[in-house]
Specification:
Elements: E1 2-6, H1 24-32, E2 34-38, H2 40-43, E3 53-56, E4 59-62, H3 69-86, E5 90-93, E6 102-106, E7 114-118, H4 120-127, E8 131-134, H5 135-141, E9 149-152, E10 169-172, H6 180-189, E11 194-197, H7 208-217, H8 236-246
Parallel strand pairs: 1-2, 1-5, 5-8, 9-10, 9-11
Antiparallel strand pairs: 3-4, 6-7
Helix pairs in contact: 3-4, 7-8
Length: 247
């Protein structure tokens, strides 16, 4: 499965200040998928370091007032062509960036204020039909004993039904379309961060990023090496593979 990922989230020093924003959850994800590296601002040839940029009135300005709209458009176009040629299914980009923000960006005042909106590159990916996520979506998808995944299944849950309480997955068995809403409420009441379902006619997951992983990995036959029976130590992608085997 190929995923486009912002280079700064992978630890590359490509940000405006010459730094990076490595995200452990994204670094873990990158170990299990084929990464297509992207950084529209680097692709535009913008100098590093430079003043920070924000969008305002449909254009992009550095904090010193320099209009860099054309440079952002050029870099986004180059990265979009790279992503389309690679055949990626989704992208994980830096939250709130003027290039990569997805649904929320800084308002152009350089005061830290936020407004609804999309980064220049993120908007072009979205228009091309590529699902766009941020590192925050990847973090929220991570299972752990405090926020386990709930599997809403129409069967008894197979091998997952016998998992110990400390496992990152719990099973709610014998769910039907009629009882689906009640099962979702039960999962929420038990502190589950995400639910996944194989119930006919019902959504597959409450988490859009996990849904994207399920679509991308469904046709990927690569076997996963044997791991602990309680699923401890499973990466996000490895756990999705296990769930797909059950579902």
């Amino acid at each position: 499965m190929r995923i486009a990922i912002s280079d700064c989230l992978l630890g590359k020093p490509v940000r405006y200040d010459g730094g990076a924003k490595p995200c452990p959850a994204v670094l873990s994800l990158a170990e299990d998928v084929e990464v297509v590296h992207v950084c529209p601002e680097a692709a535009a040839g913008l100098p590093v370091p430079r003043p920070p940029a924000e969008q305002r009135d449909g254009r992009v300005f550095l904090a010193d007032g320099t209009d860099v709209t054309e440079a952002f458009a050029y870099g986004s176009g180059r990265c979009l062509a790279h992503v389309l040629a690679a055949g990626v299914l989704c992208a994980v980009l830096k939250a709130r960036s003027p290039s990569c923000g997805a649904g929320e960006i800084y308002d152009g005042s350089h005061t830290g204020a936020l407004v609804p909106g999309w980064g220049v590159f993120a908007a072009r990916l979205r228009a091309a039909g590529i699902a766009v996520f941020t590192e925050e979506d990847v973090i929220s998808a991570q299972p752990d004993p405090e926020r386990p995944w709930a599997l809403l299944v129409g069967s008894d849950g197979g091998r997952f039904a016998a998992l110990p309480p400390e496992a990152p997955v719990m099973v709610i068995p014998q769910v039907s379309p009629r009882s689906f809403a009640a099962a979702c409420a039960r999962a929420q009441a038990r502190g589950c961060g995400v639910w996944i379902s194989n119930v006919a006619g019902c959504p597959r997951s409450s988490n859009p990023f996990i849904s994207a992983l399920m679509r991308g990995l469904a046709g990927d036959p690569r076997p996963e090496p044997a791991r602990a029976e309680d699923l401890s130590g499973y990466s996000l992608v490895a756990l999705v593979r296990e769930v797909l085997r059950l579902l």
